[in-house]
Design a protein that fits this description.
The complex is a heterodimer of chains A (524) and B (553). Chain A is an alpha/beta fold. Helices cover 27% and strands 23% of the residues of chain A. In chain A, the strands form 5 sheets. In chain A, strands 1, 5, 6, 7, 8, 9, 12, 13 and 14 form a 9-stranded mixed beta sheet that branches. A 4-stranded antiparallel beta sheet of chain A has the order 18-17-20-21, with no helix packed on it. The termini of chain A are far apart. Chain B has 553 residues and is an all-alpha fold. Chain B has 25 helices and 6 strands. Chain B has helices at residues 3-8, 10-15, 39-49, 55-64, 66-73, 111-127, 134-144, 155-167, 173-181, 184-189, 203-212, 230-239, 287-296, 299-313, 320-336, 342-349, 352-355, 367-377, 388-404, 436-450, 463-467, 476-487, 494-504, 510-522, 527-545; strands at residues 243-245, 257-259, 269-270, 279-280, 452-454, 457-459. In chain B, the strands form 3 sheets. In chain B, strands 1-2 form a two-stranded antiparallel sheet. In chain B, strand 3 (269-270) and strand 4 (279-280) form a beta hairpin. In chain B, helix 15 runs antiparallel to helix 16 (342-349) and helix 20 (436-450) runs antiparallel to helix 25 (527-545). The longest helix of chain B is centred in the C-terminal third of the chain and has 19 residues, at 527-545. The chains are: A alpha/beta (524), B mainly alpha (553). The interface between A and B is large, with 67 and 74 residues.
Amino acid sequence: MKRRSFLKRSAAAGMIPMALGKTNLFAHNMQHPLARLAQMADDTDRVLVLIQLNGGNDGLNTLIPLDQYDNLVKARPDVYIPENKVLKLHDHIGLHPSMGEMKRMYEQKKIAIVQGVGYPDPNFSHFRSTDIWTSASPADETWNSGWVGRFLDDEFPDFPLGFPNADKPHPPAITVGSIVSNTCQGLSVNLGLAVTNPDNFSELPASGGTTNMNTLYGKELSFMRNMIVSTNQYLEAIQDASNKGSNVSKKYLGQERNNLARELKVVARLIAGGLQTKVYVVNLGGFDTHASQVEAGDTTTGDHAELLLKVSDAIGAFQEDLELMGLDHRVVGMTFSEFGRRIKANGSLGTDHGAAAPMFFFGKAVNPEIFGENPLIPEEVSRRDNLPMLYDFRSMYGSVLMDWFGVEEEKIKSWLFDDFEHVPVIKSRKARPSFGREQKIFLNSNNPNPFRNRTDLKFWVKEPGVVQIRVFDATGKVILQLANQEYEAGNHTIRIQGSELRPGRYYIHARMKHSHDMIIAAKL
Amino acid sequence: MNRRDFLSFSSVSETSSAPMMPTRSLAGDLTPYSGPWDRAAAAHLLRRCCFGPTPEEINQALNWGLEQTLDRLLGNHQLPAPPVMFDFNEDRNAREGQTWIEAPLDDGGDDGRRRRSLRAWNIGLMVGEGIRIRESMVLFWHNHFSVEIGKVGEARNAYQYLDLLRKNALGNFKTLVEEMTILPAMLRYLDGDDNRKGRPNENYARELFELFSIGKGPLRGPGDYTYYNENDVLAAAECLTGWRPITQGDDAGSPQVEFSEDRHEPGDKQFSAAFQNRVISNAGKDEYKVLIDMIFAEKQTAVHIVKKLYRWFVYYDITEEVMRDIIEPLAQQMVDENYEVKNVIRRLLASEHFLGTDSHGAYIKHPLDMVVGVVKNSRYPVPTETDYIWSYYFWDNMLNQARNMQMEFMNPPDVAGWKAFYQEPLFHQIWINSVTLPYRFSYLKNFVRNGYRKNDIRIEMDLIELLGTVEDPFDPNLLISGWTERFLPMPLDQVQLDALKNVLIPGLPDFEWTEEYMLYLADPSDEMVSKSILTKLEALLTAIVTMAEFQLS
């Protein structure tokens, strides 16, 4: 870290706690010079909060595509949400009725939503798909480090050697809860500490000795000793922040049984107390809704409704808390889950493991838009059919790293993947081309459709640029890449040979920078 | 790896858990152990097989010799008496002191009390285990066939599940998978009861492949996990259609299952090349066995379970050498012996690889090992069977302590079991973090100081009795070496021993301890003297069990 930015940050961090008393100096007097100082958030002040929804959240009942409603009802007759109960964000899209708080936040321009986030070869195992999402590996490779871990490894080189230190006295990442997160697994050690109750610490006895360390016993013993030493240092810092920090929002009231709200409350308090931790991970489990996702007779109730209520209320309270304390400019949050669920309901008032699903981003710094079009739901849906992805989850991670933490594109590509696509969910300080709603690539229906021997795909490109066109099968898997190259502005045609595809339904997805389009094609 | 490589990284590991530490294998292969049957070897064997063996048990093993100790560890032992109600008297079908394992739930009953009785009872079996491997194996299988107690139906189902694990603890792996597949608890836990013709629910079938039998291999193509693929999961789910637990309601007895022809998918089930493109035709209620036969015909199934056993008893890092010298031969033996477990474990435990000093002390205790272990190590006067209510309360408390350290018996995080037993690359190190370490230390300090308290009853550790177990209690050096040998996996160095003596008699010559102790013996009823002795012993024991070394086994 540069000396200058460190000084600037420490001044702000030192002042904030004083202002967190009942008077709420910053919130009510934004012209105060101290307030302006605190507003000067640079990269080192920024906090990312990851909300992991364990079990696979059902995207189609969370963000409901109303223009596909008839087919949705047909595919999930005992699970769909009645249209008049959907909380509409726009004409053709709305949220689950439990998500009132997040609807309010969307209207206040504090929520961004990205539709259809997934990866090209969906995996339906919880554990494997969670590994994929936390490591950000390709689906066919096993990576032992987590994506946040790789970013933090870069910020905290050689961790834990030499940490904590005067420059970086606080834990790089914190998991609120009892288990450290795989997301924060670095190349050698995990960079996230697990914290349940920041008020209940006492120093652990450290023990030394000259035991021979070149045995496996020595290896594990030195691991234990190092954990004791660093736990003590970090415990002190966390406790200090917890003592200085506080919570202000009244919205936490009544949420005592909401684990996610409890965990986010701890996060807000630690941020308010001056903890310089960059990434927090919180969890809510229970999204594996194979059965009783909804209650028979009233699909707006049931397990999923309760879970989404927890998510929405917890995020609402957390955001308000940060706003009241004048900290909202420093914090961005995002949700993720290992997969969405199948299009078709399973007959047990639930849904089985699926593929792509929406991600939610929140905070003052998000671009409050819905990125990506509604998913296309076919009229006839079989048990194995899935939604194809629009955005690769690694592009979402990369976009956050780029716009929130200022990471260069080269690093993002090396930590995530070469195919990185920037999606401006977060407002950038640098001027970037506006995302807009203007379509830059347009797919005509292929002709003939359905087809047997061959079909021609016509598309139109507004301005020259790289176009990627891929074909997904009905289960959400990438089967074919038709193009990934520069095209001139204007009309183009690609011929698809029938011999390349088995009979069935396919999604054809075209992508340019900041523009997408998708159609459905059928091979006989 | 040769000796030189080995030395070259030692300097790194001394300063930290060394980010770039190269992996190295434990020495030795499956050759029968030829080293001395000494205290270190005997203690190592018992520590890894039992929960915190006492020095008295270690002496017993020394007297028996290796073969006889293995006979006892792996012997057929009588099954324990079933759990009883202990804190609730409103269940007319199971009053306090009576068992409930076949009793219907009375109107006034509370299944939660039965579950509490069951889990406390099982912890009690760990505490009372003695020189036997069975309870460690029950926990192993519980982690392998992971279920969460809240999702298996009535407590009677959970008892039946544990009973199955206990009866087959050292039995036949394939039989265990067969019985588990149609066990009511498992049918409920993994939605087998929703799995029916035309609407297959693949939840159990997927875990059968991925976790319970053959295991998932490298992803070879879309939906292809080398040893099986997505189509195999669907086909297996169809093989398993038709089974469901019978709702018990007011009926007495153990939970039962039924097979319904109507709910069973009669068509052919096509498997992939991983199973030689096998087609399983309708075999009705025997079809699950045909499926399991097919999976167990693949050697990979043996490899998968042997790797888990290795990580359970030896160490988590399976290097290429370990794979070649240990896992492969044991897997072959398991196949040759039609999936009998006992001889495979015996061969591993009797090997140079396991008993040689290289593997000693390198195992981070899991929470139950630590919580139960310290009770046994310290000869804690567990309330006796005659006072069963207090025993149950005490065991229940141990369950909660281990839960705080992230291991709640019969409530693992998910169907994969506890992360520390499978999650690369940290494995056992996952138990240790900034939350669990403070829990571990405060539990140990509190246990040494207060023992167990409930209401006005307090059961403390008997430190004077524990002092009496050392070779010469008058000699502070022998007191310290006796206790460190009792509680710690490896000998300490002189610096550490001196530090411990400084806790016992700060800055004083050795004879001061001798004199204090003689004073106490002259009149044990003198409270002033006994208090000062006890304070010293308590400080010493606290210092020992809160050393990093105590967390290792």
